[in-house]
């Protein structure tokens, strides 16, 4: 079963009065023999190429290195689309993982493959809860802050929630990280931002030092980009004033299995419609341009950024730089899924409301992230569509 409801019932979730702290997972069981094996395997592979050395394990060194390997990663919004993939990836690597999520747009089912994992703690709660944030940061060696109000349809409908959800919890987390740093404990943090911060900048390709060009405040869709820009300003201010190790990533259309189309995401909407033989609804004339990157590529970049000290204190575009128009995307989805669906066009005012303004072209310059961590996306559009279609097909009875 996939996550995602229609936009209107979200209000119920947003208005939950007091968030519950509901921890699941067995949490603290460490698999020491696994770690020892991993460490000694690492030793065997080290040294000059082709030279195999027999090493006598040094118990002190092993326990020290095992302590280094036992990282506890906190993922806010870890039951969401990107967060759940990140949680799986970190568990596979041997991290302890704490997921905190209020299940507003994410859902527990996204974690079904790892819910019983002994190194996962799942906490149902909101990161606007001061005590909860303090407790979770106190247990973490690094933080991936992904929780936010996400999705064009949701943002157009719920602008108050967008602004509150995206600004206040980020400030709370940064403030707490600042206090911890003052007491001598620096915890690296990745902050998820978005290509929406560029607004409607008319450049063909956007690079990190470009201007942010937003529309009028009477148009609620800009509240998402502006709220994320405030997060970036805050993060960079904490870097400057308090020396916190924070890195900001601006995601450009991340897609893959488990993404829900319920909040306006285009690829899951198209794939679902194509597989069901329904029309694919393209907004406006379909000539607006986007770049789609697979979540597996994005996760690699996020982890590498937080683990690269030289990347700290900077903002990075993260995504694919291969442009495709939404109309061509719809055609490609129909072709890859062998669908007989038709394409229908819908105006923005019918899809959202009269005030809606879109961005015609959104293509990142990836030079900075390539220079910092050697990042290049590995999956092309066909691979990506197939991966999403396979997920839907496998869920159809
Ligand atoms: N998917 C994309 O293409 C994309 C593009 C740009 C930016 N981003 C950013 O990446 C991050 C993850 O996005 P996603 O696509 O996985 O969306 P998502 O909606 O699947 O994930 C967000 C998660 O945050 C949770 N959440 C929201 N408010 C919370 C709160 N106060 N406390 C606890 N949990 C809360 C939601 O329940 C959800 O599980 C977001 O910050 C988003 O702005 C995503």
UniProtKB/TrEMBL annotation:
Its EC number is 4.2.1.46. It is an enzyme of class 4 (lyase). It comes from the Bacteria. One of its GO terms (molecular function) is dTDP-glucose 4,6-dehydratase activity. Residues 74-386 form the NAD(P)-binding domain. Residues 1-27 are annotated as: Disordered. This is dTDP-glucose 4,6-dehydratase. The chain crosses the membrane at residues 62-83. InterPro entries: NAD(P)-bd_dom, NAD(P)-bd_dom_sf.
């Amino acid at each position: 079963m996939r996550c995602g409801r229609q936009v209107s019932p979200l209000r119920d979730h947003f208005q939950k009065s007091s968030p519950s702290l509901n921890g699941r997972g067995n949490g603290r069981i460490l698999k020491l023999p696994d770690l020892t094996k991993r460490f000694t395997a690492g030793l065997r592979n080290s040294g000059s190429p082709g030279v195999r050395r027999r090493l006598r394990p040094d118990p002190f060194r092993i326990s020290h290195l095992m302590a280094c390997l036992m990282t506890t990663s906190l993922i806010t919004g870890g039951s969401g689309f990107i967060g759940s993939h990140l949680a799986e990836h970190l568990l596979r690597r041997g991290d302890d993982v704490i997921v905190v999520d209020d299940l507003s747009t994410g859902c527990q089912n996204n974690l079904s493959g790892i819910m019983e994992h002994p190194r996962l703690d799942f906490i149902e709660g909101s990161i606007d809860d001061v005590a909860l944030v303090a407790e979770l940061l106190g247990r973490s060696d690094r933080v991936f802050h992904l929780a936010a109000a996400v999705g064009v349809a949701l943002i157009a409908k719920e602008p108050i929630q967008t602004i509150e959800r995206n600004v206040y919890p980020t400030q709370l987390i940064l403030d707490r990280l600042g206090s911890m740093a003052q007491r001598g404990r620096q915890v690296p943090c990745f902050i998820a931002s978005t290509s929406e911060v560029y607004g409607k900048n008319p450049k063909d390709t956007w690079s990190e030092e470009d201007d942010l060009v937003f529309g009028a405040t009477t148009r609620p869709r800009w509240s998402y980009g502006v709220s994320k820009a405030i997060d970036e300003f805050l993060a960079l201010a904490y870097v400057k004033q308090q020396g916190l190790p924070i890195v900001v990533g601006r995601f450009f259309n991340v897609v893959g299995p488990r993404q829900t189309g319920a909040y306006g995401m285009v690829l899951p909407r198209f794939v679902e419609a194509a597989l069901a033989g329904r029309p694919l609804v393209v907004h406006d004339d379909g000539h607006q341009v986007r770049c789609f990157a697979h979540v597996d590529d994005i996760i690699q970049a996020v982890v590498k950024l937080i683990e690269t000290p030289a990347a700290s204190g900077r903002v990075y575009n993260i995504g694919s730089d291969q442009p495709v128009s939404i109309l061509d995307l719809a055609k490609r989805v129909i072709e890859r899924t062998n669908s007989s669906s038709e394409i229908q066009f819908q105006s923005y005012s019918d899809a959202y409301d009269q005030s809606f303004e879109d961005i015609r072209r959104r293509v990142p310059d990836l030079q900075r992230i390539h220079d910092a961590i050697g990042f290049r996306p590995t999956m092309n559009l066909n691979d990506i569509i197939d991966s999403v279609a396979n997920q839907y097909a496998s869920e159809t009875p």
